[in-house]
Amino acid sequence: LVLLALAFSFATAYDPSPLQDFCVDLNDTTSAVFVNGKFCKDPKLVKAEDFFFSGLDKVGNTSNKEGSAVNLVNVDKLGGLNTLGISLARIDFAPYGLNPPHTHPRGTELLVVLEGTLNVGFVTSNTDNRLFTKVLNVGDVFVFPIGLIHFQQNIGNTPVVAISGLSSQNPGVITIANAVFGSNPPISIDVLTKAFQIDANVVKYLQSEF
User: Fold this and answer.
1) Is residue 79 helix, strand or coil?
2) Which residues are annotated as a binding site?
3) Which positions are annotated as binding oxalate (predicted)?
């Protein structure tokens, strides 16, 4: 029974395998019953537009604190992705811009650089916390294993464009700083001072920034 329970938990941890050619998201939010969070449109009503998205040619707005912009094409933007276990993102970086440390809890990420130079890396889980980092140029590819904290930074004075493929129709994202210092309601200052071994005033300042 224990082995069966473990096997069942593992099997449901990822996007389910499709049992038909496609299951286009019906985009119906009125029902309380969901299959993988979505309803399937009647196959007879499916059109080519259900498998189409336009817009990744547009440069993202990088005029923010991080100097980066992510345009994620997941199942919420492209209904035809439902049950197919894949999504895509365009990432734009201003000069020296950063896509800050974050994780995708439901997907591995495969990134290719189209323009510019990126410094990328990920950190393994406890207790090693080993950092793997690499400078990528145009045409280079790097993979970030599912669930591990990773980052990308433009290390040049020209913009960077990258494309990422993700092994989930809805990989999710947890930006570490936002989650820790910008939670709602806030995490206790006592917890954060002990966890990061920093002064309470520093914690208060960081929480105010988010």
Assistant:
1) helix
2) 99, 102, 104, 109, 150
3) 99, 104, 109
Residue 59 neighbours by CB under 8 Å, 6+ apart? 92, 159, 161
Ordered structural domains, the chain, with CATH = 12-172 (2.60.120.10), 173-209 (no CATH)
The mean predicted confidence, pLDDT, of the chain is 90
Q: Do 121 and 127 meet the contact criterion of CB atoms below 8 Å apart?
A: no
CA dist., res. 107 & res. 129, Å (int): 20
> Can you tell me the distance from the alpha carbon of 166 to that of 147, in angstroms, rounded to the nearest whole number?
12
Give binding residues for oxalate as ranges: 99, 104, 109
Residue 140 has pLDDT above 90, yes or no: yes
Of 167, 34, 177, 33, the closest CA to residue 102 belongs to 177
Q: What CA dihedral angle connects 8, 13, 14 and 18, to 10 degrees? A: 40
Residues 6+ away with beta carbon under 8 Å from 203: 181, 189, 192, 193, 196
Query: For residue 33, is pLDDT > 70?
Result: no
For 51-68, the pLDDT digits (tens) are 999 999 999 999 999 999
- Rg of the chain over all Cα atoms, to the nearest angstrom: 20
Q: What are the pLDDT digits (tens) for 184-193?
A: 999 999 999 9
Q: How many other CB atoms are there within 10 angstroms of residue 162's CB atom? A: 27
Cα(198)–Cα(195) distance, integer angstroms: 8
